[in-house]
């Protein structure tokens, strides 16, 4: 068998295009993913037109001056603003593709904000020619507007709470450049109570003053709750995230596991199916199984060859990604285990495909046609489709090695918490199953 | 050496111990009988051609003799060490060189000294100067010679060739038969199948005629001509007439 293995390695060495595809492709993918994950996306360019006169960029609310430009900066956290002078210029820049979108702040925004009651509108323009781009801009601007709104709402809340405190406890209030002393409800009530004590029981003013004193008491008691009410209204809904199911893998680390598993799958399945089909295409199969090597031995050799090559390529790819993305090198032995189990199962799938297809081109085509939907199905999240369909997808995914290989590698790389034992056993079971299919296919292979 | 008519193995080899003998071979594929009660023997150093129309059972017979197929009935007596097998299409690796192909199969055949066997076959096949060339760079004739050389690596007493000249031009064919003739001179028995009956007339000590799975004639080409009357017609015409007379 070792002579066959050496022969296949020799053939691979003399097929530079094939080797280039098998090695350079996954390594290039690794580098691209690594760079993409480590650098992050650049800020998209957005045209920004501020129609608010510089003299009106601040407004007064509740006796306090608020600088609107401070809150506008929230809008630029995820975008690179390109300042323009007119709406027409903003439109031109969006149409020409110089910017992804435009954000226009109307001149009356501070007036509306001054009222504390009216909403202020900003205008967003984007090119919907590319729906993906349009949605991206829409989401970014909406998200940043929500941040700006939240920051303004916090400031409004702060002012409202201060006003309520002044109403309750009294104090100094600056209004139109004059300092006013506000009595406050508590002190008003105390004064009323003192006055009531000095009045004779039969005094006619006593009953009306008692009503006012009772109102002041009620107002003090209820306004004490106002702080909480205002806080709640400024952020009516808050998000508390609780993950019920699945691991704790960050998205970029999971992307690494997906990239490596996809490469492992393609390299192994294509190599195993192609090299087995090649034996028939070179007419060597019937000569080999005439006592030179058993059919099972031939399958073991092809599985070993494909698994070994793909294992090496995937490991190089992982190490390549590891240069850019922080991987836990302390779990390196687990990486090897996950890659080995995945490669074995994919190679078994490959020889089954090669045995059934019998020709290299048909085997390669079948390998692609089968691998892509398997990977796609395995990545469909629950809730994206109906419950019954998801059960079918889970069942189909369990019949192929992609999902358990991804699960094993995810755990090996990221300690996702799902454990490696079950996926590794699953992969070994699939290896045996596909090996059996391949062995049966070889009965009519020659 | 050869006799005429339908004969059993012992008669075919004129008393010498046969190098290869088949007795009562029958093979069915479902309802269809591909080979029916076929018996014959091949003497050491004998060159035997198996001829017959399409679907006669030639490839089935050679596959059974080469142990690729098992017969439903009957037995095959092979020499110690088995027989050499040369399939119709070159069963060699186009990405390997001539010597690499020979060395690989010598190792798989567990030949005691693979390098010596490779050298011997390179010289015997006249390919020593092409030893380092990849198979994909060789002509069809040279590839077929490598294919035959692989079948001879273990120095078998009997070599089976399945339509060895089907893809060769006349010049390549001539060189092939020179090579095969050299084998029989060294005592190797050669049994081959062919569609080309004139080739069988020229390059066979004896022909086996198969039709619809039956062995209907075994003898020299001249004996086949005599079977249909020595009326001066060529061997191909005599063969066709023979088939007609036998109802095929």
Quick take:
Chain A has 446 residues and is of the alpha/beta class. Chain A contains 17 helices and eight strands. The relative contact order of chain A is 0.10.
Main-sheet strand order of chain A equals 4-1-5-6
Let me know the largest β-sheet of chain A. Answer: 4 strands, mixed
Helix content of chain A: 55-70%
Strand content of chain B: 15-25%
**Strand runs of chain B, count:** 9
Overall pLDDT score of chain A? 81
Instruction: Figure out the total of helices of chain A.
Output: 17
Judging from the principal axes of the Cα atoms, what is the shape of chain B? Answer: globular
Helix content of chain B: 25-40%
What are its keywords?
heterodimer, A: 446 residues, alpha/beta, four-stranded mixed β-sheet, two-stranded antiparallel sheet, 66% helix, B: 248 residues, six-stranded mixed β-sheet, three-stranded antiparallel β-sheet, globular
What does this structure look like?
The complex is a heterodimer of chains A (446) and B (248). Chain A is α/β, with parallel strands linked by helices and 446 residues long. Chain A is built from 17 helices and eight strands. In chain A, α2 packs antiparallel against α10 and α10 packs antiparallel against α14. The longest helix of chain A has 39 residues. The mean pLDDT of chain A is 81. Chain B has nine helices and nine strands. Chain B has a six-stranded mixed sheet with strand order 5-6-7-3-8-9, with helices on both faces. In chain B, strands 2-1-4 form a three-stranded antiparallel sheet. The longest helix of chain B is centred in the C-terminal third of the chain and has 16 residues. Chain B starts with 8 loop residues before the first helix and ends with a helix. At the A-B interface, α1 and α11 of A face α3 of B.
């Amino acid at each position: 068998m070792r002579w066959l293995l050496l022969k296949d390695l020799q053939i691979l060495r003399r097929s530079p295009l094939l080797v280039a595809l098998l090695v350079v492709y996954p390594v290039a993918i690794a580098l691209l993913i690594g760079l993409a994950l480590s650098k992050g996306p650049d800020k998209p360019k957005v045209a920004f037109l501020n129609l608010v006169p510089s003299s009106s960029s601040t407004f007064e609310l509740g006796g306090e001056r608020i600088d609107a430009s401070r809150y506008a900066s929230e809008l630029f956290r995820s975008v690179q603003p390109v300042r323009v002078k007119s709406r027409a210029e903003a439109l031109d820049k969006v149409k020409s593709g110089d910017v992804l979108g435009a954000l226009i702040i109307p001149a009356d925004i501070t007036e509306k904000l001054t009222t504390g009651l009216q909403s202020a509108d900003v205008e967003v323009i984007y090119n919907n020619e590319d729906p993906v781009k349009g949605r991206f801009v829409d989401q970014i601007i909406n998200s940043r507007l929500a941040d700006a709104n939240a920051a303004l709402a916090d400031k409004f809340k702060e002012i409202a709470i201060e006003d309520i405190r002044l109403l309750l406890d009294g104090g100094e209030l600056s209004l139109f450049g004059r300092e006013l002393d506000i009595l406050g409800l508590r002190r008003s009530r105390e004064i009323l109570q003192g006055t009531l004590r000095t009045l004779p029981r039969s005094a006619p003013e006593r009953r009306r003053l008692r009503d006012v004193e009772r109102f002041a008491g009620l107002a003090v008691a209820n306004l004490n709750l106002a702080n909480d009410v205002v806080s709640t209204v400024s952020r009516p809904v808050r998000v508390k995230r609780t993950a019920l199911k699945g691991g704790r893998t960050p998205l970029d680390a999971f992307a690494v596991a997906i990239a490596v598993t996809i490469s492992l799958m393609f390299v192994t399945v294509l190599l195993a199916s192609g090299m087995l089909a090649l034996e028939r295409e070179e007419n060597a199969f019937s000569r080999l199984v005439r006592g030179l090597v058993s059919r099972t031995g031939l399958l073991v050799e092809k599985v070993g060859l494909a698994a070994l090559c793909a294992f090496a390529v995937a490991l190089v790819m992982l190490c390549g990604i590891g240069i850019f993305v922080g991987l836990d090198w302390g779990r390196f032995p687990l990486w090897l285990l996950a890659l080995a189990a995945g490669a074995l199962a994919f190679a078994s799938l490959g020889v089954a495909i090669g045995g059934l297809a019998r020709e290299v081109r048909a085997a390669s085509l079948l390998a692609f046609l089968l691998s892509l939907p398997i990977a796609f199905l395995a990545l469909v999240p629950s809730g994206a489709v109906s419950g019954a369909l998801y059960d079918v997808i889970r069942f189909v995914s369990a019949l192929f090695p992609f999902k358990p290989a991804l699960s094993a590698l995810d755990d090996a790389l990221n300690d996702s918490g799902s454990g490696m034992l079950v996926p590794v056993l699953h992969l070994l079971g699939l290896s045996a199953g596909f090996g059996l299919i391949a062995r049966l296919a070889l009965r009519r292979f020659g | 050496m050869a006799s005429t008519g339908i004969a059993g193995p012992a008669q075919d080899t004129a008393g010498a111990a046969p190098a290869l003998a088949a007795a009562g071979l029958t093979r069915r594929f479902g309802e269809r009988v591909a080979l029916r009660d076929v018996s014959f023997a091949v003497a050491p150093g004998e060159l035997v051609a198996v001829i017959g129309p399409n679907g006669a059972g030639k490839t089935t017979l050679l596959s059974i003799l080469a142990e690729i197929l098992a017969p439903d009935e009957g037995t095959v007596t092979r020499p110690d060490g088995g027989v050499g097998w040369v399939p119709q299409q070159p069963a060699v690796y186009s990405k390997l060189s001539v010597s690499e192909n020979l060395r690989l199969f010598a190792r798989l055949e567990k030949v005691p000294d693979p390098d010596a066997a490779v050298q011997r076959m390179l010289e015997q096949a006249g390919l020593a100067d092409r030893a380092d060339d990849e198979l994909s760079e060789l002509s069809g004739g040279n590839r077929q010679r490598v294919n035959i050389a692989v079948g001879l690596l273990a120095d078998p007493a009997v070599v089976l060739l399945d339509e060895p000249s089907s893809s060769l031009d006349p010049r390549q064919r001539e060189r092939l038969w020179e090579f095969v003739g050299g084998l029989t001179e060294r005592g190797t028995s050669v049994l081959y199948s062919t569609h080309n009956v004139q080739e069988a007339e020229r390059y066979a000590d004896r022909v086996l005629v198969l039709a619809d799975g039956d062995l209907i004639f075994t003898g020299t080409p001249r004996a086949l001509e005599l079977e249909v009357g020595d009326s001066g017609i060529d061997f191909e015409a005599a063969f066709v007439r023979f088939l007609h007379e036998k109802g095929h």
